[in-house]
Specification:
The protein has about 80 residues and is an all-alpha fold. The chain is about 70% helix and about 0% strand. The chain is flat.
Length: about 80
């Protein structure tokens, strides 16, 4: 579930807003589902995922996690200085 949620949050919600910095609320998840129904990326739609597709997804997720960690470290450093 966690991997699927991260994938949805990074692809669907990231297209609509800034990167996720807090856990999604129920309303945000519902909005993401509606947005996915209305607007699909089409990149992986209608076919099984290949090993190359999974590598793309993993690479994007790793970059997203790194960006979030950097943002978290900056926020923690700002709090430590304060």
């Amino acid at each position: 579930m966690r991997t699927v949620r991260e994938h949805v949050m990074s692809t669907v919600v990231a297209l609509e807003s800034s990167p996720m910095t807090v856990p999604a609320t129920v309303a945000e998840v519902k909005a993401a589902r509606k947005a996915k129904d209305v607007q699909t990326s089409g990149e992986f739609e209608g076919r099984p995922l290949t090993a190359a597709d999974w590598k793309k997804i993993a690479k994007r997720d790793k970059a997203r996690q790194k960006a979030w960690a950097d943002e978290y470290r900056q926020a923690a450093a700002a709090l430590a200085v304060s």
